[in-house]
Design goal:
Pathway: Purine metabolism; IMP biosynthesis via de novo pathway; 5-amino-1-(5-phospho-D-ribosyl)imidazole-4-carboxylate from 5-amino-1-(5-phospho-D-ribosyl)imidazole (N5-CAIR route): step 2/2
GO molecular function, one term: 5-(carboxyamino)imidazole ribonucleotide mutase activity
Number of strands: 5
CATH class: Alpha Beta
Radius of gyration: 16 Å
Bound molecules: 5-O-phosphono-beta-D-ribofuranose
Keywords: Isomerase, Purine biosynthesis
Oligomer: single chain
Enzyme class: isomerase
Distance between the termini: 43 Å
Order of helices and strands: EHEHEHEHEHH
Low-confidence stretches: none
CATH architecture: 3-Layer(aba) Sandwich
Number of helices: 6
Function: Catalyzes the conversion of N5-carboxyaminoimidazole ribonucleotide (N5-CAIR) to 4-carboxy-5-aminoimidazole ribonucleotide (CAIR).
Mean pLDDT: 96
């Protein structure tokens, strides 16, 4: 697969305050040399930009969109409703309900428009990126080997843990 210039993954979020969490997805994509873009697209404050971004995603070459939001987190579901590009949702911890609101808002999509939903917070952001890579690795052997070596190194780290 030719990843040379344009982004193949979009990392979008409802606010710059989500970046502490969503940067974990970006770091994983960066470490695997997969071109990505990161943007703030607030579903309730920037609905026009959200519509345009999702509607153009496929033709711009995006293969996956990782979308994070907190609270009544409608960004991942709304993006998914506007594109056939698969959407991976990350519930961002919220101020009052610690992200349980974000989780339920993202995971409880009505049937017909799926959003693959991950754990609340940085584990979710990391795993969303790893899951995107696992899907791409089905068609890209170089990426598959990088993923296997990432897995091996975390296994080695766990085996070497001393108490
Ligand atoms: C959501 O509201 C964002 O995704 C963020 O998690 C939360 C708070 O946004 P800010 O008030 O920090 O901009 O839209």
């Amino acid at each position: 697969m030719d990843y040379i210039s344009s982004p193949v993954v979009g990392v979008v979020m409802g606010s710059s305050s989500d970046w502490d969490v969503m940067s974990h997805a970006a770091s994983i994509l960066e470490s695997f040399d997969v071109p990505f873009e990161s943007k703030v697209i607030s579903a309730h404050r920037m609905p026009k930009e959200m519509f345009d971004y999702a509607s153009e995603a496929h033709d711009r070459g995006l293969k996956a969109i990782i979308a994070g939001a907190g609270g009544a987190a409608h960004l991942p579901g709304m993006i998914a409703s506007l594109t056939e590009v698969p959407v991976f949702g990350v519930p961002v911890p919220s101020k009052y309900l610690s992200g349980e609101d974000s989780l339920l808002s993202i995971v409880q999509m009505p049937k017909g428009i799926p959003v693959a939903t991950f754990a609340i917070g940085e584990a979710g952001a990391t795993n969303a990126a790893l899951h995107v890579l696992a899907n791409m690795a089905l068609f890209d052997n170089t990426l598959r080997h990088k993923l296997l070596s990432f897995r091996k190194s975390q296994t080695d780290k766990a085996r070497n843990m001393k108490l």
